[in-house]
Design a protein that fits this description.
- The structure holds two protein chains of two kinds.
- By secondary structure, chain A is mostly helical.
- Chain A has 20 helices and two strands.
- In chain A, strands 1-2 form a two-stranded antiparallel ribbon.
- Chain B is mainly α.
- Helix content of chain B is 74%, strand content 0%.
- Chain B is globular and about 60 Å long.
- The chains are: A mainly alpha, B mainly alpha.
- At the A-B interface, helix 2, helix 5, helix 6, helix 7 and helix 8 of A face helix 7 of B.
């Protein structure tokens, strides 16, 4: 008969292990608390929840800050680990969530959908992402991926009275469930060949299993599923529709945080578990990267809707982040991390400005809605210009540093003849540069509308303290990464050390 | 010997009802055939001494999911569906997928279990042969996989909140 251990022992086990998931626990408990407090918040004053959510994010951030410099803590039988990689990405998700709360509050007011559930779901999604960055086990990866995805499906459909929002939610849900199923299939094959769900042990097994058909199949299926999640071509079809239909604040959150979380998984799985079988997947990943940035850019050129244009731009940026993964070197991982960091700030800034333009009966989603912005709000137009130039990769802005690192990582590998596929890398770099030039064209369409076009829609912009804070924070950090990148580079270097 | 006979009986019943599920014109009948098919799958699990998975198969699939299926079929007006052509334009894709599945099965049959060359991992689950299947599962769920198990409860809560948020008129 199975003997129950004494209660004190179980308690000690939980105390010892829950340190590693402290920030996530804080966030989850806070979200649950918010749902209960919601009962006593009167109907017209739900905006209080935004403040509550911010409090939860700050608390989790504080917890994370206190744990930042400790050596890696793995807990719960090695299913999660709190290392510098997890800390870096968790901090990124928390910042993205905080900025999203800032930009959501006013937007939801205008759309008349101010509810506590929105902020609670945001916190649930964020904690799911933090678990993803910390996961070291296939089952934890799968469950936390689902926690993030399901929260996001609901957030996308949060404007329940809008048909577009419903449609976006359904499309995102169906394709998201499909891609999760593909990842799960790959995981089951991986478990079959390696006999374990632990990523580190799988990495050791992969050495012995070189060339095993099932292992190759597992690598490809997991790669395809993750490409769905980061919206890389040819699995990006859901992204423009989902981004367009979702509440704009959620679109901003999806395009940075959800994408960064999927990339965190990508990096963790492909460096810890699949590093020994790099030869199999690198050529395919090069093709995906080239296809992603080219397709995203070419499609973005023809868009009239800013949300769709930015969706395609976000797809092409995923192609650049993949370049770091393709390089597979220390510099490559650092480049991917820096790219995601810089991208988080500049892209959230853009979405904040798009939300600012959502006023009265103007959706703020067409390129024409930007007409003459400079003549009325010069400072806002200049901040927007900074974000757009940063996305295009113009020095001295954050986006330039990001692109600089990605290209140096690729070129370093391409110049090294001992590396396999060095010539492929050269092509990747060349096409990457061409694409950066193409992207200038459509970013400048917005610049043209803001600075050259005359007519201005007289309706006042929907300013709010939260939105201005968000724009200020993202703008300052975008500039800071470009002008004084060293601390950010150090952060990224420390973050990626557990992978190598 | 006894096990072999039982296996073939269950397998035949399974294949028979699966085919009926696909070709039946009435959706309600399809659902009922599917129940029989799932029950024989549960029987196969019992035969493999995976009694927990077998019991869950009966409880969750036959008890829960199939009732849901029937509810949905009853809610959607069945008469219109019955007279629609059974196989739409998707049958070609269906054939391709079926062939892929068949190829996969043949591959596994030819190569046997040898392709799953698993060496016993050090940190993974070690299934002790003398313990009961259910007990082993319980130990693993509340031991090695305690954390994912607990996150799953949050996941279910999020799903409930999501369903309420998306479907209720006034929240």
């Amino acid at each position: 008969m199975f003997e129950l251990p004494p209660v004190t022992e179980a308690w000690e086990f939980l105390q010892k292990n829950s340190v590693a998931i402290g920030p996530q626990l804080h966030l989850l408990l806070w979200a649950l608390g918010m749902l209960i407090i919601d009962f006593v918040i009167p109907a017209g004053r739900k905006a209080v929840s935004a403040l509550l959510a911010l409090g939860g994010i700050v608390m989790a951030g504080l917890q994370l800050y206190l744990l930042r410099s400790s050596s890696p803590i793995s807990a719960f039988y090695d299913t999660v680990v709190l290392d510098s990689f997890a800390t870096f990405f968790s901090a990124l998700f928390l910042i993205a969530a905080a900025v999203t709360v800032f930009i959501s509050y006013r937007y939801l007011e205008i759309e008349n959908e101010q509810h506590t559930e929105y902020y609670a779901l945001l916190l649930f999604a964020t904690s799911g992402m933090m678990f993803m960055a910390a996961a070291l086990d296939l089952i934890t990866i799968f469950i936390s991926l689902e926690l993030m995805s399901i929260s996001t499906y609901v957030l996308v459909g949060f404007l329940r009275r809008r048909r577009r929002s419903n449609e976006a939610s359904l499309k995102y849900f169906l394709l998201g469930a499909f891609s999760t199923a593909i990842i799960l299939y790959g995981m089951s094959l991986l478990y079959g060949v390696s006999g374990t769900t632990n990523l580190i042990v799988i990495g050791e097994q992969a050495k012995l299993l070189q060339g095993n058909t099932l292992l190759i199949l597992a690598v490809f299926t997991i790669m395809a599923g993750l490409c769905f999640k980061v919206a890389a071509a040819p699995f990006h079809m859901w992204a423009p529709d989902a981004y367009e239909g979702a509440p704009t604040a959620v679109t901003g959150f999806m395009s940075v945080a959800v994408k960064a979380a999927a990339f965190a998984l990508f990096l963790r799985i492909f460096f810890v578990a699949f590093h020994e079988v790099r030869g199999i997947y690198v050529p395919l990943l090069v093709a995906v990267s080239i296809l992603t940035m080219t397709w995203g850019n070419v499609a973005a050129v023809t868009q009239q809707n800013v949300k769709r244009m930015l969706a395609y731009s976000s797809i092409s940026h995923a192609g650049y982040v993949l370049m770091g993964l393709v390089a597979g070197t220390e510099l490559g991982v650092i480049a991917s991390a820096i790219y995601l960091l810089a991208y988080t700030f500049m892209n959230l800034g853009i979405w904040a400005v798009v939300i600012l333009l959502r006023r009265q009966d103007i959706s703020g989603e067409q390129v024409e809605d930007f007409d003459g912005l400079y003549s009325r709000h010069p400072s806002l137009a200049i901040v927007m210009l900074i974000f757009l130039l940063s996305l295009a990769g113009i020095p001295p802005l954050g986006g330039f540093i990001a692109k600089y690192f990605v290209f140096s990582a690729i070129i370093e590998v391409a110049m090294d003849p001992s590396q396999p596929y060095a010539s492929l890398m050269v092509w990747l770099a060349v096409i990457g540069v061409i694409n950066a030039v193409v992207s200038l064209y459509y970013y400048f369409r917005i610049v043209y509308a803001m600075f050259i076009q005359e007519e201005y829609q007289p309706a006042p912009l929907s300013f709010s303290a939260g939105l201005l804070t968000a724009i200020a924070i993202t703008g300052i950090v975008t500039l800071l990464i470009g002008i004084y990148p060293q601390p950010f580079i150090n952060l990224a270097r420390a973050a990626t050390s557990p992978l190598l | 010997m006894m096990e072999g006979v039982l296996f073939y009986i269950l397998a035949t019943v399974l294949v028979f009802f699966s085919i009926l599920t696909v070709v039946a014109r009435n959706p309600v009948r399809s659902a009922l055939y599917l129940i029989s098919a799932l029950l024989s799958v549960a029987g196969l699990f019992f035969l493999q001494e995976a009694e927990f998975v077998g019991a869950v198969q009966v409880l969750v699939y036959v008890g829960g999911i199939m009732v849901l299926f029937l509810f949905v079929i009853m809610l959607v007006s069945v008469r219109e569906v019955v007279f629609q052509r059974k196989a739409g334009r998707q049958w070609k894709a269906g054939v391709v997928l079926a062939l892929v599945m068949a190829a996969e099965l043949v591959y596994f049959l030819i190569n046997g279990v040898g392709i799953f060359q698993s060496t016993p991992p050090e940190t993974g689950i070690i299934v002790a042969p003398e313990t009961q299947n259910t007990e082993t599962l319980g130990r693993v769920l509340y031991g090695t996989y305690l954390l994912p198990f607990e996150i799953a409860s949050i996941l279910l809560l999020v799903a409930i909140i999501g369903a309420v948020v998306l479907s209720k008129k006034e929240i």
